[in-house]
């Protein structure tokens, strides 16, 4: 069609206007996208550094299980460590409260800093370190005693407690571990009578009782059924309001569900460490990509 | 484990193939609709209207397949991005089919009386638009960012033709109210084509996300840079 431009001015907008399209009020967008969420940390959001490792190397005899890991773990975040069996993730985890010291023939080089202070320095008080950096293991391991005594066992090693003080610690810790409502009428029953999931939460309560700043969890749900697993995951999200959590898990979906940041270990190397969304949506390293897509080996 | 993952890869590949099938199908609908309009072929227009059910079924089938893979395979990383992209892209493609039906309906309305003027710009616009759908589908299958850019660039030409036609057809209507029915439908067709091009730009943006992992408003950044160079230049 021919166009006769002499008759009148075009009624159409200048198409370059589209460059000035409003892109949305950022505050409104933020409010719409973020209604008080307690989800994972976002890019650019950084909590205080809690633990830092520098060129951390761990040897079992001649075997170098961890090959120079530099990583920063932050307060009030959940960090997940993933990787195939034997990749060194549990060894790394245990180094954060020196549990490797309990394994004969282990040697550690490099630095592990807790709040900026070395935990590897000679003369470090291991009891106090493990109180600050508590650990929950793969298989629930309650002591063969009552629920009540399981929880106050640790605090009683540190101080003489009055009955009221002990009661308070028991209630606070069991509430913290989301177990209180289920056991409050049976506190003096044997811990071994609890279900697997309850036993694991009891172990978390036992750790919480001594007031840790960091919680290390080594495959805490691998012996639990899906419902109990979900409970623990919810609990982790609640607990991270107060402390730093580092979890080793074989379950990638668990890592993607609960954690803020994820580290991928392979053959003793920390291949990639980033926001969890980044690791599971668009990892940088092709080894990470192959692992999270289940294309490994 | 390995075998399960191999099957999974085949299933993802099948999703890609199905998306291309949907793209080819709506391209065919669109070119049929345009032919029906230009040739004033009512039967062909009817065929396009019926074809819409096929496009809808295909869209639904792909969506179900993607949901199944999400539920059963819990895809991660690139796999997740491919499936997420497929789900977004098919919605845009299905919409292209809907617009083809709209064009076919206008073609039916205009089938009885001769056009007051030979159609030139509208077929030109549809050629570009159809090309864009094809290119975007290829970009998806080949994961080709070069093709993504091509699609984004072509959208500018479609926008220019749309504004040109808008001015022109309004003038015709002002000059001769007898032309209002025809001109209005032609204007609608031009608008549908312009909308199709925008949906195709969405497709291109998703393909870019699928490849790079970044969500970007490519059309906006493209137009912005285009404006900048235009301002320094002579005419628009």
How would you describe this structure to a colleague?
The complex is a heterodimer of chains A (297) and B (236). With 297 residues, chain A is an alpha/beta fold. Chain A is 33% helix and 23% strand. Chain A is built from eleven helices and ten strands. In chain A, strand 4 and strand 5 (117-118) form a beta hairpin. Chain A is globular. Chain A starts with 25 loop residues before the first helix and ends in a 5-residue tail after the last helix. Chain B has 236 residues and is mostly helical. Chain B has a single domain, classed as Up-down Bundle (Methane Monooxygenase Hydroxylase, Chain G, domain 1), CATH 1.20.58.220. Chain B contains seven helices and no strands. Chain B has helices at residues 2-39, 42-73, 77-109, 121-142, 145-175, 180-212, 218-232. The longest helix of chain B has 38 residues, at 2-39. The radius of gyration of chain B is 20 Å and the shape is elongated. The chains are: A alpha/beta (297), B mainly alpha (236).
In percent, how much strand structure appears in the residues of chain A?
15-25%
Number of strands of chain A: 10
Please describe the biggest sheet of chain A, giving its number of strands, its sense, and whether it closes into a barrel: 6 strands, mixed
Estimate the helix proportion of chain B, in percent: over 70%
What percentage of residues of chain A falls in helices of 4 or more residues? 25-40%
Radius of gyration of chain B: 20 Å
CATH homologous superfamily of chain B? Phosphate transport system protein phou homolog 2, domain 2
Could you give me the name of the CATH homologous superfamily of chain A? Answer: P-loop containing nucleotide triphosphate hydrolases
Secondary-structure class of chain B: mainly alpha
Q: Can you count the helices of chain A?
A: 11
Order of helices and strands of chain B: HHHHHHH
CATH class of chain A: Alpha Beta
Return the average pLDDT of chain B rounded to an integer.
91
The parts of chain B where pLDDT drops under 50 for at least 5 residues are 224-236
Q: Compute the separation of the termini of chain A in Å.
A: 63 Å
Largest interface: A-B, 31 and 40 residues
